[in-house]
Protein 1
Amino acid sequence: MKMATKRRLHGPAIWLCLLLALPVSVSVWAQDEGMAILKSECSSCHDLSGPAPTTLKGLWAREAPDLFYAGIKYKQNWLEAWLQKPQRIRPAGMFYANHIKAGEDGDVIDESTLKPHIALSADQAHEVSEALMTLKSNSDLIVKGEYKPGKISPTMGELMFDKFRGCLACHEIEPGYGGLAGPEVFTVAKRLQEDYLISYMRNPQAWDPKIFMPNKHLKARDLQKFVHYFRGLSEEKF
Ligand code: HEC
Ligand code: HEC
């Protein structure tokens, strides 16, 4: 009799435990699968463990963006979608000097030197994005919740970005308009976490010691305004 009662009690309890553990183990499994893909398919170009280059030679030799702080940099939904259908983010590649040539009206991109990015299946992209979100070096540079959503008029945002701060010299604010040395910023709010954007713009060299984006010593207020501006740009259709 006693045994039977015990079994009746334990049965459902064990199933309940298994059910509760299931989502956790499925996501751990996805992370492991994703990490295996990262190591075999991606690490030849991307650095997964850091640190960032500390010499100019190292910077010029870098083939792809560092991913060892992916979990505090990217928005996961963007990662998952982009990995299935990658589109160019840096108009002239990782190091623009390797991909521009002289044209009639100044520098033009030498498209023949730019290669398309590897694309993943939906399942792989999910697994890889799960794994990337676990890479969290440099967390000490992030102030969680520092960005407070707000608005800036597009005209004012553009004035700041172009005339006041000279950012347009290196970044495009719409396809084909702006500099070629840095990543496009009209998609940056879709791609990157807001608190990361603030931290990076406050001190790019804290993230990437040799990067040539100048530290403009932006005030806290202006950092917020730039993120408002990027969020506005990301809603526009180009
Ligand atoms: C042949 C080199 C190469 C390989 C292999 C490669 N990538 Fe990339 N990856 C790049 C380059 C170059 C860029 C920059 C593209 C751009 O700016 O348009 C990039 C960009 C990215 C980005 C966007 C990062 C950012 O900050 O803009 C992600 C995410 C990414 N790769 C993930 C992966 C994953 C995951 C794999 C493996 C499945 C992989 N890459 C394999 C070269 C590579
Ligand atoms: C001399 C060229 C240059 C100037 C001027 C410049 N940047 Fe950058 N910026 C860069 C480079 C290079 C990167 C990093 C490239 C990379 O990660 O591949 C970058 C990265 C960024 C990023 C992160 C984008 C991403 O996709 O990872 C933001 C945001 C940004 N810059 C904003 C600004 C703002 C705001 C200004 C003006 C205050 C500015 N930049 C001025 C070259 C420049």
Protein 2
Amino acid sequence: MRITEKAHAELDKILQRGDLAIDATLGNGYDTQFLAQKVGTSGHVFAFDIQKESIEQSTRFLGENKLENRVTFYLSCHSKIKQNLPIELAGKIKTVTFNLGYLPGGDKKIITKPDTTLSALKQAHLCLSDNGIISLISYRGHEGGRCEFEEIEKLIKQEHWPVQKTPGSEAPDSPVLFIIGKA
Ligand SMILES: C[S@@+](CC[C@H](N)C(=O)[O-])C[C@H]1O[C@@H](n2cnc3c(N)ncnc32)[C@H](O)[C@@H]1O
């Protein structure tokens, strides 16, 4: 099973119709598609990416799947979740997903960075509902990826967040899935 499928399997256990979700790294829109299907017409997904290309491609893709009405797109850094998300939704988000790194098929130099990732993670955790989870995939294989992974591990430890950590394989540079709980 691919690591993205492992993440979806975890989300599948908790997501219900009517839930609210955030995709902190929209990319090509596959995670948002999954979230939008799970939350149904009564739920909603808030999706962030810093690349116009990602917003345009995902708007098209979700439109083709008739899911665009369930999604609000933000051409914005995920470290600005707090500024963008309607204030009354804080504490009501069932899941926040992060799939770090670069846009597949896009510019590999535009990658997530430790500073903004950690800031976004802290804001994401504050947004979660009591039974909510963060799903985060961190890539250790590309330049800068290992440093970002280590910073994430440090933050989780420091904050005493409950976490389940699943490496993609036994290879030391395989991606890692973190499922982070609320309390
Ligand atoms: C691995 S891709 C995400 C894949 C995506 N979830 C999907 O299903 O296709 C990582 C994405 O993170 C975006 N990204 C990088 N830095 C970001 C930031 N600071 N805030 C929001 N998105 C960012 C990139 O532009 C890229 O599209």
